[in-house]
Amino acid sequence: MRRILVIGILILAIGSGGAASILTYRMLKNRQAAAMGANHQPAPTFPLVVATTKLPYGTLLQNEHVKEVEWASTVRPEGSFSDSQAVIGRAIMVAVVPGEPILEGRLAPKEAGGGLASVIPKGKRAVSVRVNEVIGVAGFVLPRTRVDVVVSVNPGGEKGKSASKMILQNVEVLAAGQKIEQDEEGKPETVNVITLLVTPDEAEKLTLASHEGDLQLALRNSLDLDPVTTPGVLLSSMVHGAPKPAPASRTGSPSPRKSPDTVEVIRGNKRSTENF
């Protein structure tokens, strides 16, 4: 009987300890969950205007191009918009990808309109030149890339006087595309056109070069902005090499004396020599 009583007491003690452990675990878990909930509040949000699709530069923004989303962040992007109507009718100056915020610094001024004209900075001009696949660097000349412009001319039609010279450097490409023109027979044909962003002085050079010579575009690294100085090249010097310099004259050195003429004179049986 006593043995049964002892076993019963042990079972009761074990059960009470287990119940206390379960209660303690539950209390600690509830406190931990409460603490995590207090420390992890939802991040604040604010309305932000973003692009709904890919927008190339020059695009005039319409309602279908933008939307308002709740942006979760503690910092609002500088120059961003919360109302989509604030950007409608303004042109994109830098290409935008879907979901990217629309920023003031990437928009043309108000009332500037859309298209290519809206992205031309003050004091610059857009000049288009006709190119082919070779001149256009096999299709690698794209908007926002930079090129140098080389012209080849043949003044007077003399073969040996053909020359090539780099006339413009580090020029930004505004647009690259195609347009329909009429050929010599009046038939429509598709031609490739590159539009360059230049100053008025450069526009004059480019226009004259395109009419009087053949243009070639040289694609350059967009990070390589340093100008270079080139003398140009003539066909005659490229084929035959540079002319040899004339031998330097020796000023002040005495001229060699001419050797005297010697004549043998015979007078009877006597012989003599005379120098002249």
Which labels suit this protein?
276 residues; alpha+beta; Type Iii Antifreeze Protein Isoform Hplc 12; 6-stranded antiparallel sheet
What does this structure look like?
The chain is α+β, with helices and mostly antiparallel strands and 276 residues long. The protein has two domains: 45-118, Type Iii Antifreeze Protein Isoform Hplc 12, CATH 3.90.1210; 120-240, no CATH class. Helices cover 21% and strands 29% of the residues. The chain has helices at 2-39, 200-212, 235-240; strands at 45-51, 66-72, 125-131, 146-153, 163-182, 188-198, 214-220, 233-234, 262-267, 270-275. Strands 3, 4, 5, 6, 7 and 8 form a six-stranded antiparallel β-sheet that branches. It has a two-stranded antiparallel sheet with strand order 1-2. Strands 9-10 form a two-stranded antiparallel sheet. A hairpin with a 2-residue loop joins strand 9 (262-267) and strand 10. It is elongated and about 155 Å long. The mean pLDDT is 76.
Short structural description:
It contains three helices and ten strands. With about 280 residues, it is of the alpha+beta class.
Task: Give the secondary structure arrangement, pairings included.
Elements: H1 2-39, E1 45-51, E2 66-72, E3 125-131, E4 146-153, E5 163-182, E6 188-198, H2 200-212, E7 214-220, E8 233-234, H3 235-240, E9 262-267, E10 270-275
Antiparallel strand pairs: 1-2, 3-6, 4-5, 4-7, 5-6, 5-8, 9-10
Give the CA-CA distance, first to last residue: 169 Å
Helix and strand run: HEEEEEEHEEHEE
- Net shape: elongated
Largest sheet features:
6 strands, antiparallel
The rounded Rg comes to 44 Å
Please bin the fraction of helical residues.
10-25%
Class derived from helix and strand content: alpha+beta
User: Based on the structure, what is the oligomeric state of the protein chains?
Assistant: single chain
Query: Which blocks of ≥5 consecutive residues have pLDDT under 50?
Result: none
**Overall residue-averaged pLDDT value:** 76
* Strands, count: 10
Beta-strand percentage range: 25-35%
**Domain tally:** 2
Helix tally? Answer: 3
